[in-house]
Amino acid sequence: MASVCGGSLSLFDAGVPMKAACAGIAMGLVLEGGKYAVLTDIAGIEDHNGDMDFKVAGSRNGITGFQMDMKIEGLSISIMKEALAQAKRGRLFILDKMDAILPEPRKELPEFAPRLYRIKIPSDKIGALIGPGGKNIRRIQETYGVNIDVEDDGSVFVAGTDPVGCDQAKAEVESLTMEAEVGKIYKGHVVSIKEFGAFVEIFPGREGLLHISQIDVKRIAKVEEVLKIGDEVEVKVLEIDGDSKIRLSRKAVLSPGSENDSPGPRRDGPRPEHAGAGRGDRGGRGGDRGGRR
């Protein structure tokens, strides 16, 4: 019964979300003539010389399991009631001691506890995860020190003992198989720059166009004024067309709602200080018309 108590505490210590702690206690019996004695927490000598080994395990809410060995032909109801009541008192006493040490499961798994993550991916993305000749999945396993199993229904199991490695491997599996969503913000990297904008990789193997009009809240003449290859940038997915091409906006992240603002015509030359310069002074028109030819 000590294994029940120790097992329960171990599960709590490992962060397993148990509903309640369990304790166990073994009850014994010595029956001689018409007299008897119910013993609590028996050891080997009482088990060997006594007439009963009655093991009771459970939580504060009730019994979860029991088992009995007897050397006599039977037990009366009154002895059974007494043994169960005595076992409950002993069980609650032990649970009080256990709760004083660890009253509930730890919120986080301990550093060296093994991890097992289950991720569900679309079945048509299994090939992208595995890669040609298993290249992708082997690289993830070797890089992060994990084991990865993939099932036909898209269930992916990531197992390992290093919490950081497991988390990183899980994130990479998700990034290799995820689909872009309209309206969602992603953190990506600039992979190429063109005159009309930049291409941003929002997750491995998936790029979108960040048009020059969507790079900044202010008008810019060249992409390089704001971005360069390799820059990390947050972008919002504005649209995914029928050919799965993605249109992105950095402007929408900097100033939500501004992505719908019309950029207007682009002016390359200097803009005059006043649009009506040279025409506002009508007195000038009343000058010497004779100069006209």
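That was protein one. Protein two is written in the same sequence-then-structure order:
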Amino acid sequence: MQFLRFPVRALILLGGITSMSSYADDTEAYNAKFQSTYVWQFKDAFPAAYTGANSLSTAHEKSYSFTATAAFGFRPWTGGEIYFNPELSQGVPLSNLVGLGGFTNGEMARTSGSRMALYRARLFLRQTWGMGGEREHLASDMNQLAGNVDKRRLVWTIGNLAVSDIFDDNAYSHDPRTQFMNWSIMNQGAFDYAADARGYSWGTAVEWYHDNWAVRAGRFIQPIQPNQTSLDTDIFTHFGDQIEVEHSHTWASQPGKIRVLAFRNRAIMSRYRDALNLSAATNTTPDLNAVRTGEQIKFGIGLNIEQAISDDIGLFARVGWADGQTETYAFTEIDQSISAGALIQGSAWGSAQDSIGLAFARNALSAAHRGYLAAGGIGFFIGDGKLNYQPELILEGFYRWQTTKQLNLTADWQHIRNPAYNADRGPVDVVALRAHLEF
């Protein structure tokens, strides 16, 4: 699949076209949105008893990432929407993006480099069929045309997009460009969803909305090799399936949602036990690359809760579990994760558009995964040569300042204990500055 090319100057100019309404009830015929996000991070030196091939560096480090995305949408027929997102990215990660389960910058793609890259992030069709009931308004946004829709409707999406565009959403923690940045806080850490190294895939999903209920299911293609750019186009052989049930409710006159997610991946993956068995038989260090020979199944479940406490305070929590018998294939090395936090708008101090966020995550590994790392095995993201296992603990806090309607600036701090699940290393502190432009 060849990436579609788009002139950078045209991308920026067209990003200023916000919308056009030519239908009744504020329905947009087309819109164009633009975002740009720059993240600078700094990590201080920290203590460690030893360091391995995929350890977080113990030295002082600086990191940056930059993304710019244009989102073009138009309505070719009633109920139909087509979206196209050309995207630029550039960046240098901390420690070559190894040494953590919960990485500190959700904007950092695994293919980021010091040279700017232009690629197609999304190109997809969304079709909606109304099925009655009350009406609700969808506001104009990136990859969403404004319009009124039935609360009872069927939505079909097909094409090139991110699985997280549809699944595991949360009003208070889902967007690392404006909310929490840690990978295990912005998503369910154990949700190893199908994606290329930039976080995108090809596939299809169906969503059924019925008043306060929603059910969505989708299938997307996997990378040919773990955490690589090239995708396996045989969607009937190697794939990631997920299904999610969502219920909206009102508690103490405030809105909330509960989502339950299950996923199942099928791909050519290595099993930790196979690597350990081969290591014992040959008296060598266990190696996942030596046992990646057959198709395996990986599955998991998750719970996702969001709840407003007032007009200015919202709480969220996620719990995720994966079986942890096979290698991480497309996201990060987390087999179980619990995260929770709060997002507070600044009305109380006279800055309603500002926000404060505070959250924590506890990430863990399966017994087989621990055994593999303790024996000296190296995963795609972690591997210290040995392991004094403890859960990885993360605390993140930020203040976001809305300087203008289009620009906000964020100061972020993350404290990580037991990086890569190793009590012999850390703790480590990471501070960040983020600038986000959107119009």
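The chain has one domain: 8-438. Keep this in mind for the problem set.
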